[in-house]
Amino acid sequence: MYRPLSSPSTFRTPQPRQGGATAALLAASLILAGCSGGEDADASEPEPTFSSAPSSSAQETGDASRFDTDDIAELLRAEPGPLDPEDDAEEIIDRLTETFGEDIGEADPDEVFLELLNLAAADYREVQQYIDDVEVEFTDPGSGPDDAGVEDTGESVESGQSGGLDLHVLFDSSGSMGDELDGERKIDTAVSAVQDFIGDAAGSDNVQVGLLSYGDVSGDNCGSTEELYPLDAYDETRFNEALESQKPGDATPIATALEDVLDDVNAEHGDVTDRQTVVYVVSDGKETCHGDPVAAAKALADSDAEAVVNIIGFDVSDDEQQSLKDIAESGNGEYHRADSGDELRDLMREERSRTIDAWRTWQSENVDRLREEQSTVVDKSREIQSSGVDTSRAEQTALIAIVDELQERSEDGVSLGTGLRSSAVSRGTSIRSYLVSTLTSLRSDAVSEGTSLRSDVVSEGTGERSRIISEGSGQ
């Protein structure tokens, strides 16, 4: 997002800069028809007052050459004059007369105008400082809820990680998963439900999926796991084939499986902590290999990846429920219970609904925030433009009043007065045109970028919800 205007006291003091001739100002004017709001009104109309530096006859002027440039931005960065043309008109005229002599009417109007600005130019530094500093920036909405994944899985993870989601599925292939439940082997029911869930949760581009089986490896089941799908982008065919390849084994080495994931996470992340890690353990019973899954889950949660460990307990006996809940709690995750095939499928449907709701919320919140950030830039730039334009009008009117008085007091002052008035109008017109053009362009950029980002968010959110609903209805 953009940097807001600071208070005047925090601005740097611009240094005098050299430039071209004051007479070139008129040629540099940008006359904007229709959008300038009548800024080039007749100079005789009442204008708002403006403030220059505090009035004091003891104050010294700077180098008048700081106004000898056709670069409008440099003019607005210049130190103002020390005198107020409304309150100090007599002193300004006296000092001009002292500088150019009683025959000031014969002096070069350009030189007189530079000295007039040296004495009484308005202060535009705050306006130009805003233009120099403002940046049209919007908060990155990311790629989805909590940047593509945490809300998709229904879990709560601390913010601060925004590089995507690594989703690890640990699948129980112990012997009990071969038992029948509701006329179907539990392993087959679980495979089908996990396929549906992962197909939804891994739909975003920055989600990676890994599949680890524990309990079905021949031989020493308590010491073995099998990586069926190394952490990678989701490929539906390859993932489903890996999931369907499992066969019921003997033991339930949950701790070993979690430790294997921790090894992978440490190798994958290293010092990188901008990806979120969520682990789903699908199990129909407690640890049976004398490991410590609670400690393993806590180690994952305490790792640089700050992983979340969730447990899906499928047809778990009452006396084993608590052990699985303890694992989820130590892993900063949640325990989900499903006592039948229908309940497991319902659980996965609930996850799908939570995903849809998360995308809807993500879309709404980002659209609102982007609109607010756009309005902030637009409103502030209008405020700055109005302030600068009003100051310019007031300055032009005050300078012309000085010129009129100077002309009346000078012999042969008509030519001088005509030249000075022309320079005052040229300066005012150029400044106002510059402000309107520059700040209108800024607002246009903010509106264009904000509109584009909101359109992208709506398209992304609507598309993801449609995809999830479509996949769910086809199952």
UniProtKB/TrEMBL annotation:
Q: What is the superkingdom listed in this entry's lineage?
A: Bacteria
Task: Tell me the Gene3D superfamilies matching this sequence.
Answer: von Willebrand factor, type A domain (3.40.50.410)
Q: Spans of biased composition, class Polar residues?
A: 1-16, 49-62
- Any one Pfam family here would be VWA
Q: Where is this region: Disordered?
A: 1-20, 36-70, 139-165, 449-475
The VWFA domain is annotated at 166-351
Q: Which SUPFAM superfamilies match?
A: vWA-like
Name of the featured protein:
VWA domain-containing protein
Naturally occurring in which organism (per UniProt) = Candidatus Corynebacterium avicola
Instruction: Provide the taxonomic classification.
Output: Bacteria, Bacillati, Actinomycetota, Actinomycetes, Mycobacteriales
